[in-house]
Amino acid sequence: MTAPEVQDYVGFDTITQQMERKFLKRGFNLNVILVGESGMGKSTLVNSIFSTHLVDSQGRRTAQEVIRKTTEILPVTQTLDENGVRVRLTIIDTPGFGDQCNNEGCWVQVIKYIKDQHAAYLERELKPQRDRIINDTRVHACLYFLNPGSRGLRPLDVEVLKRLTEVTNVIPVIAKSDSMTLDERTLFKRRVKEEMAFHRISVYPYASEDDDDEDRMLNASIRELVPFAVVGSEETIDVDDKPVRGRRHGWGVINIFDESHCDFVHLRNFMLRTHLSDLVEVTAQRHYEQFRTSQLRQIKELRAQQAAAAAAAAGGSGSSQPPVAPLPHQPMTQA
Amino acid sequence: MKSTAGNTGGIQKKKMNGYVGFSNYPNQVHRRSVKRGFNFTLMVVGESGIGKSTLINTLFDSKIFPDREEMPPSAEPVKGVDVTSMSADIQENGVKLRLTVVDTPGFGDSINNEDAWQPILENIESRFDAYLAQENRVNRSKISDNRIDAVIYFIKPTGHCLRVIDIEFMKRLHTKVNLIPIIAKADTLTAGELELFKAKILADINYHGIQIFKPVSDEFDDPETVADNREILSKIPFAVIGSEKHVERPDGTPVRGRRYPWGIIEVENEEHNDFIKLRQMLLRSHMEELKDTTDMVLYENYRTQKLLSMGHVQDNNVFREFNPLVQMEEEKRAHDGKMQKMEAEMSGVFQQKVNEKEAKLKQSEEELYARHKEMKSVLEKQRSELEEKKKRAEASARPITPMEQQHPTKGKKKNIFSGF
Fold first, then answer.
1. Is the CB of residue A159 less than 8 Å away from at least one CB of chain B?
2. Which of A220, A256, A334, B122 could bridge across to A264 with cysteines, CB 3.0–4.6 Å?
3. Domain B26-314 is of which CATH architecture?
């Protein structure tokens, strides 16, 4: 069916500007969770991406400090402003993850947190009187930090990634990739992609039928880069009197914005400049919807069970109405 | 040698008038050692991919460890910790070294790494046990020494304090082996970060009372050695990189190193990493000390503990002078006493057993008797019942037929049966 020709200028193309204005007024939420062992470079990387000191490293600094025994969830919210656009940025750190001798179940708290946010949103959505704008605390992206030098994915990575990719958009990164030569990085990336395919772990970006050719090409080039081999830095150093964000070694200076040095620029562009709204949308459309469907189904089943039980009881004692099932928004414990 | 005033058994210092020649003794020792050859056993511990094989191959400039083969994603990851060893005979300037490197694949790679140190500790102790057994043999002319001389523990370059698994491992093993912790993949840390990191590691090590191998100078060392030792000590724990490949410097010279887009890090450049210091300590200056400490301190401690736990008691009487006859008399008396005691014990035990058996037999006798009585009474009852039946049957008996007359017992039996 060919689209009819518009004769005069109607003006509906200003919708983009109208949306922009709305956005400027409202601002938006962005929630990113960082998952990786202590010392992988999580805090530095996230501070580099947003060019702000957002989070402090939670690594153990002195011998006297007690070693954490479990994974903690530490959300930190700040409002950033760029050209009038306000973002309420929440970075969720997970200190203690993967730091024990026995890391069985260290992912449980992380998965629980992500599901709790979906549950909280669902609860507010289902209220008879909803807020006009529901504060979106759902996790839009998860930066998963891989260990440089390992052959590929470690057993812990496989277990956690399988579970994480079911509830949120996962972006795998190697944060301290300055210990890998370019050849080693290529080998590692290939290896990781093979293993993810084998274990059926699907990371963001996902292929979708709505994608046009441009999107498809962009996504394909992103997928080539995954996992992003990046280097983070909060320091600016002088190289030939020019300020460079990077790291100075005795044998050379790393410029994190140099594409030949690392994938930092690609990661930042991907996360913030091209796929930011997509991250939020996919969270709502894919992960949240999945959660919602399974939750509502559970409620339905629960209600049916209770009705059946009540009917059986009523048959015996000739009594009351079936009890109404409360909304099971208690946090999920299965991970 | 101090000279004491007067000749009260003190050692006097004497001066010789000419060259005697005993100063050639160390050379003789040297020649003999060179002829015999040395052995050195090194263990490497660290998670997969941290650079163990590369470092060993770099240290000894030969492919001790082959390239690791690529496993398909479907391959099962190593469960637990394996302990494998690889030996190589290498030679340098006529000196033969049998180098054994013990690898520990799987350490720290699983999700659950609790007790990952256990197989490693067992391996170290079994080597001590093997040596102990050989020492106790009757013929000790050929003792093969495969005790671990040093463990190189690879620390991840996190920049933070030590991880739980690092602390646990080192705490369990530091009294059994010479522990040499190193910072692996040092090319990921800047000089400033490295300084802080080393300080944190040492603080952690001190806090947990972990003893690592340190070069110490004593009063006999010449000032050069003392200076060298101090320099080595200042760099501990060493931050190293390894590389088997050669890269070209901007001026064209080939060096062992790693090429990055931002520069080349050279293995043997002391400003880039501490590889030289590690090699110096491990091979060039302190190999003998490592072996010595293993033999004289670590092994001896292990041996003492083991023998004590097995029930041996330190018998200082062995060192007193004795008269063999008196000794034998004493021994005989002790032995007799022991024998008597044993006899008394055994007869006591025997008596006890006899009593028990008697009691048991009595009990079974009584039981049997009781049963016999019971059965008898049952039989009596049956008999009386049968008598009754017989009487009843006779009372209601029809005239005896000729058949029954002929076989009266048969008829009776028939009645008995039909009565049932």
1. yes
2. A256
3. 3-Layer(aba) Sandwich (3.40)
- Which pLDDT does position B166 carry in this prediction? 94
The answer on pLDDT for B57 being more than 90 is yes
Phi–psi pair at A202, nearest 5 degrees: -110, 120
Residues of A in contact with B191 (CB under 8 A): 249-250
Compute and round to an integer the Cα radius of gyration of chain A: 24
Inter-chain residue contact B47 with A39, CB threshold 8 Å: no
Q: Chain A residue with minimal CA distance to B258? A: A181
In total, chain A counts a number of residues equal to 335
Chain A from 271 to 330: CB within 8 A of any B CB: none
**What pLDDT does residue B8 have?**
56
CA torsion through residues B315, B317, B319, B324, sign: negative
B73 contacts on A by Cβ (under 8 Å): 152, 194-195, 197-199
Is-contact A173 A143, C-beta < 8 A?
Answer: yes
DSSP A240-272: TTEEEEEEEETTEEEETT-TTT-SHHHHHIIII
Contact B206/A at CB under 8 A? yes
Q: How far apart are CA B383 and CA B391, in angstroms?
A: 12
Task: Extract the residue ranges of chain A whose pLDDT is less than 50.
Answer: 318-326, 328-335
Question: Going along B305-414, which residue ranges are E strands?
Answer: none
Classify residue A129 as left (phi > 0), alpha (psi -120 to 50) or beta.
Answer: beta
Distance CA A250, CA B274 (A): 13
Flag if A62 and B203 touch (Cβ within 8 Å).
Answer: yes
